[in-house]
Amino acid sequence: MRRRMRCAAAILVAALAAAGCATRERLPDHALSPEARDCAAWYRSLDEQVASAGVRDAQDAPVAGFPYLRVNRFLASYRPFASAGDETLRAWTDRLLALDAAARRHEIANLPAERVDRLPDREARLSRGSALKHTAACGRLLRDADLARPESREALLERAQVPDDYSTARRVVGLYALTRHAFAEGVRRYEDEALAAYRQAPAAGFVLRYSPPHASASPSHEAMAATLRQSARNPLAIPEPGEAELETLFALHAPVLDVAITGDHDRFGALRWKRDAAVPGVDASDLVVYRNAAWTQYEGRALLQLAYTVWFAERPPESDGDLYAGALDGLTWRVTLAPDGEPLVYDSIHPCGCFHLFFPTPRARALPAPDPLEEWMFSPQSLPRLAPGERPVLRIASRTHALIGVTLERNAERVARYALRPYDELRSLQRLDGGRQSVFGPDGLIAGTERAERFLFWPMGIASAGAMRQWGRHATAFVGRRHFDDADLFERRFVFDLW
Length: 499
Hints:
This protein is of the alpha+beta class. The chain has two domains: 16-159, no CATH class; 168-496, no CATH class. It is built from 14 helices and 18 strands. It has helices at residues 2-21, 34-53, 73-76, 79-82, 86-110, 113-116, 122-125, 128-147, 150-159, 168-173, 176-199, 221-231, 243-253, 454-457, and strands at residues 61-63, 66-71, 207-210, 256-260, 270-272, 281-283, 288-298, 301-315, 326-337, 343-349, 357-360, 364-366, 390-396, 403-410, 419-422, 429-430, 436-437, 494-496. The strands form six sheets. The protein has a six-stranded mixed sheet with strand order 11-10-9-8-7-15, with helices on one face. A four-stranded mixed sheet has the order 3-4-13-14. It has a two-stranded antiparallel ribbon with strand order 1-2. Helix 2 (34-53) crosses helix 8 and helix 5 runs antiparallel to helix 8. It starts with a helix and ends with a strand.
């Protein structure tokens, strides 16, 4: 027993030491120009005001020592490729600059006016737009200065990583090596119940069908392949369709939703801040599904992904002491596209990161789990290849909003249609009582959506298990380590037929 405790303590010390490494300060900037030093001071002041106001955006991770850059798991996986030469390094940092610029735009919009007035540059204080322009100019200046110094390039490539969303300290204290066996049994029971639901015929009841917006165009298979191929003609070979082409892809692959309705808790819509509300509400009169693009790596190739998130007002309790009930609920559906634009695999989670399901097509062959206990790749259903004119139809249960069946159907659309809007809107919403506020807190969680399950599941290392959380912050397995946005998530679990 003493030996086990000594080992646990050693692991805990190592974990805390590793966490400390991520907080290293910026490299000495004595060699920087006066302009660059002023910009470094600007970022320090901006970060102080953002932290004091509690409006830090948690979607992408800041790069320690490089306050003008942020990184996600996909771009972190490009570090070896980015180091190959000046062109790839600049292209890579362009994208890290863009991630930080997006976060700064929302943070500055969400800053209270008195905090904006405390920023050091007089012109930047005149308006939020001026502050944003000043931030962008400083970011480019500091990036160029740092890329000119070999030691800064080396530090950047080392530090551009995303921290794990699992707490090793929690797992040590919770004796994860032992308790994971009991949790694995619970996961298997859930999977058995989910499989039974997929095998059952749809229950009789009131089901509303919601269709996506009309696609302005229905490109041919060849045209989609050409769009993705041309959009990947950049130094990193990442498919990045233009705004119009991306909107076409979103509309083309958006799912039809069959939602069982037993109350207002089953009506989805836009998120809104209500007056004096601590938790955002759902406006069911504004049928909205939020969409965002993402990417994954497969054998050195970047694949485009399309994600769609639906929000419900709550998950009502099924009984007294329901561990999973609470404010807000939802479903995220993701499509991973082959280079020719055809879906390879679909997957889904709830916005808590829970209930990760995979739906492979014949172009995706599953690989076995390396550890029988680990939550690896639960697939309740496979889907055929998508034929022209077909759409996925998602069958969503009442109350739990569980995905309990998927079909591919032609001419499945109905009169009731939802709108597609950018997921980024959630990072800065207007408040009726003045100002703007993100749906998500600085920790990436939606405050007020905590579930009682967090008191039971904490030994698995996930902070506030069951709470709704921001894109990029979804740990999706209790047993093992898995994130919804892991760059190698699909490469480790499937063999793809890309062509």
